[in-house]
Amino acid sequence: MHITRTRPDTRQGPAENFAGTVWIDEIAAPAAPSRLRMFNVHFAPGAHTAWHRHPHGQVLHVQEGEGLVQRRGGDVESIRAGDTVWIEPGEWHWHGAGPRAFMTHLAVVEAAADGTTADWDAHVTDYPA
Predict the structure, then answer these.
(1) Can you give the residue range of the structural domain that contains 80?
(2) Considering the domain boundaries, does residue 121 fall inside one?
(3) Are 44 and 97 in contact, with CB atoms under 8 Å apart?
(4) Which of 89, 13, 103 is nearest to 49 (CA)?
(5) What is the pTM of this model?
């Protein structure tokens, strides 16, 4: 067993992948052979990701607040503290805070062999107001 007590470096979500103010802490990235990555992501009201997909899927666990998630071709779904969402491998989706509420979630992914954790696409054009 290995306990890590280092403090993560908080970084702002890049504008090419996020709309609004988003802060990201990478809280787990174990050494190879593990490809697990865990992020704590803080979204200001109305902030959200662009469309993206993950090579091995993604688990989102909402820690606080209220948010939204949408799979390409599906309805916008509300999520709130305590909810856990599974995104299938290769499934295009976006997620973020509701228009009037902050939202924080844990995001867990497995990186591809080349280290890639996400493929990014266009910004969401019809985000609910």
Answers:
(1) 18-113
(2) no
(3) yes
(4) 13
(5) 0.91
Q: What's the confidence (pLDDT) of residue 6?
A: 59
The Cα 75–Cα 59 span in angstroms is 19
Nearest to 76 by CA among 19, 22, 127: 127
Q: What is the CATH number of the domain that holds 22?
A: 2.60.120.10
Say how far apart CA 56 and CA 42 lie, in whole Å.
23
Query: What pLDDT score was predicted for residue 7?
Result: 62
Question: Does any domain span residue 7?
Answer: no
Task: Give me the pLDDT at residue 29, please.
Answer: 78
Per the structure, how many domains does the chain have?
1
Q: Are 25 and 40 in contact (CB under 8 A)?
A: yes
Find all residues with CB under 8 Å of 111, minimum gap 6, and list them: 35, 36, 37, 55, 56, 117
pLDDT higher than threshold 70 for residue 4: no
Does 13 map to a domain?
no
Asked whether 25 and 9 are in contact (CB, 8 A), the reply is yes
